[in-house]
Amino acid sequence: MPKPEIKQFQSEVKQLLHLMIHSLYSNKEIFLRELISNASDAADKLRFQALSNDKLYENNTSLKIQIKINKTDKTIIISDNGIGMSYHEVIENLGTIAKSGTKEFIESIKNNQNKDNTQLIGQFGVGFYSAFIVSDEVIVKTRAAGLNINKGVLWCSQGEGEYSISYCEKKTRGTHITLKIRDNASEFLDTWRIKNIISKYSDHISLPIELEVYDDKTKKNVWEQINKAQAIWLRNKTEISDNEYKEFYKQLTYDSTDPMYWSHNHVEGKQEYISLLYIPTNVPWDIRNRDYKNGLKLYVQRVFIMEDAEQLLPKYLRFVRGLIDSNDLPLNISREILQNNNIIRNMKILLTKKVLNMLLKITKIDNLYNTFWKKFGLVLKEGPAEDINNKDTIIKLLRFASTNNNNDEQIVSLQDYINRMVTGQKKIYFLTADNYITAKSSPHLEFFIKKGIEVLLLTDHIDEWMMSYITEFMGKPLQSISKKDESLNELIDQDNTKDINQIEKEFEPFLKKIQKLLGNKVKKVCLTNRLVHTPAIVTTDVNEMSTQMAKLFAAAGQSTPEIKYNFELNPKHDLIKKIMKIIDDNIFNKLINLLLDEAILAEKGTLENPNQFINNINYFLSLSNL
Question: Lower Cβ count inside 10 Å, N or C end of the chain?
Fold first, then answer.
């Protein structure tokens, strides 16, 4: 037998093993779930590769998983006859972790020592290492399908920073894992315990899971199948319990929490396929990344084809998990073919509508949709720009914070808003800002609060971009209150407007003087009736880029045209009345520039020349009698 080669684990693996052995004790049984899931994946990969090379079956097409317990030796042996691994693949899969995000996984466990981290294990693709939670030593004997029997590989490790690897002889394809069970994990050497775990996590694995048991009649050890081995999605949904759906979801996604909602459908007609779609409860750590892969598995005629078939759903629904089993697609379909396949295009249209209808149903369940929105609302907000065909439905699903509630919870729908519109109100008003506090304290709100008109407060970074794709809802235009809006005049009390012409004539020389002073710093100087407590604000014209949109472009590294603001003054404010009477040009100039800087600071949160602003403040402080 060749002398084994001793290799060091990758540094991330060392950290991971330490955490597995010393930190994850809350739910030890998940080691079996993970190893069985890996074995099932190996069988799926063999089925798929054998479509183009049936010699990989090596005259044995009966795929299965077998578990053998030896109480005397304190070992559990888990075997499969799936695709197996070559020497290089064993090093790649068991000695290193190439998957992106491993460091985040390790940090997640470190930062959540007292929480259940079992769902993270499967999500990050490091399930094999959970074997060390219950094992003093793990021995893997494997051979890739199609290789000679002397190209088997023997891998051994005690989880202490290194492993040994060597070639060996293995007559059958697949993988054979021996776990030397720790003394504090001896419960897993009992047959009833193993059966219980299989029933809980792996009952729906679509190939037989056999456990070696003692038969009292024959006085021999025999193999007993302990799972149903029928894909749950092939069964009639009236025969499937809620608990079975939940457990299948956990086995499918490696998530230890129950799903929020699910839908199981058999579609017949021009296309025939089965869909089983889940809305998760847990939020994947990288869900906000547009590169996050969709969680749908694709089967064709019950044969597993690929993981994460992103062509089946649009990106804004990437939080959906589940599977599709099609009878119409060819078994040899690839990702490249999927991109240009009419069946897939039509299926995507139907699946998208199905998911949106699922979400509409959730809106009718008390508090459930609020929970969904807190977790996945930011992703769904990408929908109006991405999916114009379903935009009306997506808009119904959007939720916002508003002045109707005294908190930043996004629970207001546009239909809720319309139901509360005041008499004479023709538009849906909204305000975008960097955060809730800035939005809530904005001077733009003064008129609306006075009139009892609700304003939506949008503070997510995506909101300004999203609202550029939503122009109306139920015949009501949407209007940003940071933009100039002449239609507000219709909502202003008549007694406040009857003398407006006289007021404008009175202020005309004052406004011209300011316009001349500021020059091209502003687009226009005018009066406004929209303010109550604030002396001045800046606004943009309806068709011009808003402040928040400019910030969004800047954050993306894109250049934007300079924003020219309208400088709007409150003629009823005492400060404005006082400035009108100032004769000293130096003081007048400093006050107007200070007032403009205040308005721009309230609008943008920043100034191009903060030092000049501070100098002007200090100048007037020095004139005071403090």
Answer: C
> What's the Cα-to-Cα distance from 141 to each of 80, 243, 295, rounded to whole Å?
11, 36, 31
Query: From CA 133, how far away is CA 129, in angstroms rounded?
Result: 8
All structural domains of the chain, each given as residue ranges with its CATH number in brackets, are: 5-225 (3.30.565.10), 232-362 (3.30.230.80), 368-491 (3.40.50.11260), 496-623 (1.20.120.790)
Centre a 10 Å sphere on the Cβ of residue 370 and count the other Cβ atoms it contains: 17
Strands 566-569 and 524-527: parallel
Amino acid present at 330: P
Closest CA to 431 of 478, 482, 378, 377: 482
Rounded (5°) CA angle 615-621-625: 160
The DSSP output letter for 412 is B
Helices assigned H by DSSP within 288-434: 335-339, 342-362, 368-380, 383-386, 391-397, 414-419
pLDDT band at 497 (very low <50, low <70, confident <90, very high): low
Q: Where does residue 558 rank: exposed (0-12), middle (13-18), buried (19+ CB within 10 A)?
A: exposed
The 8-class DSSP code of residue 483 comes to: B
Cα distance between residue 315 and residue 603, in whole Å: 33
pLDDT at 154 over 60: yes
Listed residue (618, 518, 626) closest to 568, CA to CA: 518
Angle, in degrees to the nearest 10, between helices 30-50 and 191-201? 60
pLDDT tens per residue, range 560-598: 777 889 999 999 999 999 999 999 999 999 999 999 999
Residue 58 is which amino acid? E
Q: Between 549 and 355, whose confidence is greater? A: 355
List of E strands, 170-257: 174-181, 209-215, 220-225
Q: How many CA atoms lie within 13 A of 329 on its CB side?
A: 31
Measured CA to CA in angstroms, residue 488 lies from 432, 447, 453, 485 at distances of 18, 10, 11, 6
Distance CA 622, CA 277 (A): 68
Contacting residues for 367 by C-beta, under 8 A, at least 6 apart = none
pLDDT digits (tens, 9 = 90+) for 295-347: 688 888 777 778 788 889 999 999 999 999 998 888 767 767 777 788 889 99
* Cα(273)–Cα(520) distance, integer angstroms: 63
Contact 345, 328 (CB under 8 A): no
Strands (E), 251-357: 261-267, 273-279, 295-300, 303-306, 321-326
The CA distance from 471 to 429, in Å, is 11
The DSSP annotation for 116-170 comes to --HHHHHHTT-GGGGGGGTEEEEEEEEE-TTS-GGGEEEEEE-SSSEEEEEEE--
C-alpha torsion sign, points 226, 230, 231, 232: negative
Output the CA–CA distances (angstroms, integers) from residue 598 to 520, 544, 616, in the order listed: 18, 21, 11
* Token pair for 154: 């023997």
8 A C-beta contact, residue 78 and residue 35: yes
308, exposed or middle or buried, with CB in 10 Å at 0-12, 13-18, 19+?
middle
C-alpha to C-alpha distance for 305 and 155, rounded to whole angstroms: 29
Helix, strand, coil % in the chain, rounded to nearest 5: 45, 20, 35
Distances (CA, A) of 227 to 64, 144, 210, 345: 11, 26, 8, 36
